[in-house]
């Protein structure tokens, strides 16, 4: 068997794909390719290729995942997308994610809990909007529902507190300002009924 091409990735210049006998076999960081002395036209034994596929590729993918996770908490879906972007095959990606999940490096439940807790305190929004955002990050619905049930955020209270924080400086509330209040809460994901209820509680009685 012979290395017939070593092609740098267009998406990530630190990665390259290697073809053996004109068939793409694996991707690796350029540093590892150099360290393993993998060069164009070099003959490669089946045992060497098997070792690279089983150990080198996995180790490189795992290192990439750990580095990605060292910056902040990530969902399993985000890690999967990152490794896929680097060119790693699905089997390798799945193995890395499973192994990192087992040692709690990846924990979607912990991620969802931290996400909702922080959003509720720092940038409040509706439960519905937080659910949508977590869904977009690949968090399974059952995890989202479980975290929501555990933390039990109060949409009505959050909507009312948002109005107090943003509009307490006003002493009069005309139709135009009320329209802005409705738009503001709608942008935070609250329903028509929740918005009406919050505004009704917030506005001073005549």
Automatic annotation (TrEMBL):
Gene3D superfamilies with a match to the protein in the record: Winged helix-like DNA-binding domain superfamily/Winged helix DNA-binding domain
Major localisation: cytoplasm
Entry GO CC: cytoplasm
InterPro entries: RecX_HTH_1st (IPR053926), RecX_HTH_3rd (IPR053925), Regulatory_RecX (IPR003783), WH-like_DNA-bd_sf (IPR036388)
Domain RecX first three-helical: 61-100
Keyword Cytoplasm: yes
Stated family: Belongs to the RecX family.
The protein's name in its UniProt record: Regulatory protein RecX
């Amino acid at each position: 068997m012979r290395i017939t091409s070593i092609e740098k990735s267009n998406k990530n210049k630190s990665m390259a794909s290697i073809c053996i006998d004109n068939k793409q076999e694996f991707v690796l960081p350029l540093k590892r390719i150099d360290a393993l002395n993998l060069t164009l036209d070099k003959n490669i034994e089946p045992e060497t290729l098997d070792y690279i596929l089983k150990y080198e590729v996995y180790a490189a993918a795992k290192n990439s995942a750990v580095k990605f996770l060292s910056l902040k908490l990530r969902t399993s879906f985000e890690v999967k997308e990152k490794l896929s972007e680097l060119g790693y095959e699905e089997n390798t990606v799945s193995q890395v994610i499973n192994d990192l999940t087992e040692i709690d490096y990846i924990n979607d439940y912990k991620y969802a809990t931290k996400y909702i807790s922080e959003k509720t305190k720092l940038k409040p929004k509706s439960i519905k909007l937080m659910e949508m955002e977590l869904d977009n990050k690949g968090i399974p619905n059952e995890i989202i529902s479980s975290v929501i049930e555990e933390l039990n955020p109060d949409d009505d209270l959050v909507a009312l507190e948002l109005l107090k924080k943003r509009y307490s400086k006003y002493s009069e509330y005309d139709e135009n300002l009320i329209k802005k209040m409705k738009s503001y809460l709608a942008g935070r994901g609250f329903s028509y009924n929740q918005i009406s209820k919050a505004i009704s509680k917030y506005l001073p009685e005549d």
